[in-house]
Amino acid sequence: MPRDLRHFNSEIAIFTKRQDFQRMTKHAAFIADSGFIVQYLKKNDNNKPCHIGFTASRKVGNAVIRNRSKRRLRALVRTHLTTLKRNDINYVFIARKETATIDFSKMEKKFIRALNKITSASTTSKNDIPHHKNLQKPVTS
Prior knowledge:
Blueprint: E1 12-14, H1 18-27, E2 29-32, E3 36-42, E4 50-55, H2 63-79, H3 81-86, E5 89-95, H4 104-124
Parallel strand pairs: 1-4, 4-5
Antiparallel strand pairs: 2-3, 3-5
């Protein structure tokens, strides 16, 4: 079992391969905030688990800061996992320089605001969120 799957439910799979992140970047819509960027892409098959990815480029800082940023993003996802699972959407969370230092409660408010935008877009019109058929095969545990 991949290391990150231990922390999440079996209904969630983690993006681990570079090509999955590249497909998300190519096809997904995004919401950018000062603390992070959320890329989201509608799944075509609701039987497959929701996929989530976390990434931080070297622009964010050294390895310690990048890992801290990703840990903080994973903590946000863990606290709002039920909201993420309800949607038939795959997500990639991209850390920014401020992710490691911003107050966690402020970051959580921004996170909730971004999820609400994504959820309202998915309920109002099916065409607002892009979708892609062959994003990734599900990860088996």
